Amino acid sequence: MNKFFIGLFLLFFSVMTMAHEGEPNMAFAWRDGIIEIDTARQGRALGNHTAFILPFTDSLTPYRMGDSGFTGSGFDQGGIVSYQTESTLLKWSAEQSQWLQEGFSEQVKISRLADENIVTDTEGNGLQGFIAQLTSSVFEAHAIFQIQTTDGSLPDDGAYMVFINILGVDDAGEHILYRPSEPFALVFHINAQSSFNNLALSEALKVMPEVRLNDYNRIDTLFDWAESQFNELFPHAAESRFISGFYARCYDNAICVGSKDGKIYTAGGIFGDITEQGAIENFYDTAGL
């Protein structure tokens, strides 16, 4: 009898724990030097990417959602796990059958404890936000997502999207411990006025938006190539890190090279102030990447 009640308790605890993970459970795992996304298989396909659908279904707060959960396992180096936005906010246009990248007033606010970021149609790409301070190899955290407008009016029913990744740094924020994951989409579904149902959402998810997403492995390969080809500028191997929105490497001669918004920048040493050097695609072509 005691074994029966113990088993029942463990089952109940397991169910409650799973329920607390939220809907959807945006689960990740650190394996073999890579953050694998959607290990709980609750994402949906969006072109070659993964999308997590965050439904705003609370009748009392139809434009606010705090049930979805970030959960992770295998994060054995401590530090801080964060998200980073990889796009500005997108809005689905059923009339045009495409994701709009500008020209709308809605914005998304992402809050986690005292940390808060706002992403609009023109601003917010490259922001980092706190998820969890790691004290063990696993984490569970819940952020609050809110769709609002700049003028105080009600947001339109529909679908909104922002791409993010997951990464981790040491406690000082200086060194990357967990390299950025592949970017994935958060899709916010609002049907407060019963004018955008699940069928309409499914139509939206058939279309991959035309956005440029960072490939950090490719950027690192480009930096490695630059170190091998231009030793007078980049005299030694350096560690990549995020500096003021740039994915960059800095060297003992005070020169830094970085990437942001699809462009390459240099700063310091003979380059002086931050200087744009051109589209990163041109450098990929030169390096044969």
Please provide a written account of the structure.
- It is a single chain.
- The chain contains four helices and 22 strands.
- The chain folds into two domains: 19-204; 216-287, no CATH class.
- With 289 residues, it is α+β, with helices and mostly antiparallel strands.
- Strand 18 (241-243) and strand 19 form a beta hairpin.
- It is 17% helix and 39% strand.
- The longest helix has 19 residues, at 2-20.
- Strands 3, 4, 7, 8, 9, 12, 15, 16 and 17 form a nine-stranded mixed β-sheet that branches.
What is the total number of structural domains?
2
* Distance linking N and C termini: 65 Å
Helix content: 10-25%
Kindly estimate the percentage of residues that lie in beta strands according to DSSP. Answer: 35-45%
Radius of gyration: 21 Å
Main sheet: strands, sense, barrel: 9 strands, mixed
Order of helices and strands: HEEEEEEEEEEEEEEEEEHHEEEEEH
Key traits:
alpha+beta, 5-stranded antiparallel β-sheet, 17% helix, 2 domains, 289 residues, 4 helices, single chain
Topology:
Blueprint: H1 2-20, E1 25-31, E2 34-37, E3 44-46, E4 49-56, E5 64-65, E6 69-73, E7 80-85, E8 90-93, E9 98-100, E10 106-112, E11 115-119, E12 128-133, E13 139-141, E14 144-149, E15 158-169, E16 176-178, E17 184-190, H2 198-204, H3 216-229, E18 241-243, E19 246-250, E20 256-260, E21 263-267, E22 275-279, H4 280-287
Parallel strand pairs: 1-6, 4-17
Antiparallel strand pairs: 1-2, 3-4, 5-14, 6-13, 7-12, 7-15, 8-9, 8-15, 10-11, 10-14, 15-16, 15-17, 18-19, 19-20, 20-21, 21-22
